[in-house]
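Sequence in, structure out. Go.
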Amino acid sequence: MDQAYEMVIGLEVHVELKTKSKIFCSCPTAFGAEPNTQCCPVCMGMPGTLPVLNGQVVRHAVKAGLATNCGITRYGKQDRKNYFYPDLPKAYQISQYDLPLCKGGYLDIEADEGQKRIGITRIHIEEDAGKLVHREGGGTLIDFNRCGVPLIEIVSEPDIRSAQEARAYLQKLRAILLYIGVSDCKMNEGSFRADVNLSVRKRGDMALGTRTEMKNLNSFQFVVKAIEYEANRQVEEIKAGKEIAQETRRFDQNSGKTLTMRRKENAQDYRYFPDPDLMPITIDDAYLAALESEIPELPDERKRKYMEQYGLKAYDAEQLVTEKEIADYFEAAASCGGDPKILSNLILSEIYRLLPQEKTAVPITPQNLAKLAGLIAEGKINSSVSKKLVSEMWENDRDPEKLVAEQGLEQVSDGGLLRSLARKVIAGDPKSASDYRGGKEKALQSLIGKMMAETKGKGNPVLIRELLLEELK
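Output:
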């Protein structure tokens, strides 16, 4: 994007809560059921039916608010948000308008300039809509199973200034919700999805530009791509002298573009009014204290501990605590005697590389990963061998010490042997040697690669570099 402009981004995150039944009826919420098999007159909005609020929904929403530093509304209500979509048979959605359950919170992310605080405007409860299934060749089917599935909507302040900050915010928010156990946050199943409100303005300007909203992005990658495309599109429109339309857009993952869906509605278009069939929500001190006692150690507390206790960098610690199961795994390996910094590097590089999307189960025992970290710390194996071993242990978890012995993978650190190989490699590749002496630093990498080939990948890379430099002089 043109650096004369900056993005202003706010996010609305919809999170399906982990409850066995829907928000206003006893229909199940299980994902993947046959279409229209988890519906009843209440969630289908039949005349004469009455909703009954699921108490677990309020508990989960309040816990989400407490975990994101929000104030909790002691006397709240639910409102009808009136609009017609074909996947919402009542033609209104029960949500919250002026008295949300939670408001005025924040969470901290790691940004380019260090830690940055992103404000949270509100968290409110509402019911989900159904799902439209567009058939190839024409026609649309409607699955109403999702109607009435309980949601919280988490609305951020427009404090985000880049796609990477948006990603960091969503990762931190998802981690918090997983830690407190209020949602499974499965993005591929739509239980954690984001709407992106984005505008651009000249750097230094205080006034906000006209924003567009991109709906229902269910992967971090799509969020990043949608933001980058939309910001560039708006800048180009402004530079061409055109006005930005306030509208709702969708992201086409195949083309990587955002496309117009409809003109954006404003709050007055929804004609909010209190739902007459639902009692007010009151929260007393005892209820709030009980929920506060259930909040576990959160990602930021773990991050601080990893930095202080293990000496990890802020960014590395942040990445480790993003998934609770991975953080648990890291701590288990560290408790087995593994060097924390080496373990962190192994997890963030090799383990994350092998993990399937949205999976956190690691088939290597913490004990064996700790042993592998020990082999690296003692200089018995180099980084290329460690990568090879992680891949092997992923398929068949075994003691890495035995694998090293069986396969003869111990690092070659014999100075005399490596020096003679360095002389041989230099003599065999006079061009690279001449290029390096002529100031081409990259030529050294070619020589190092040939040394590693001579040692079958087992050479000590630090010692190889030192010896090559000495011989080249």
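Check: The two ends are 46 Å apart (CA to CA). The first strand starts at residue 5 and ends at 16.
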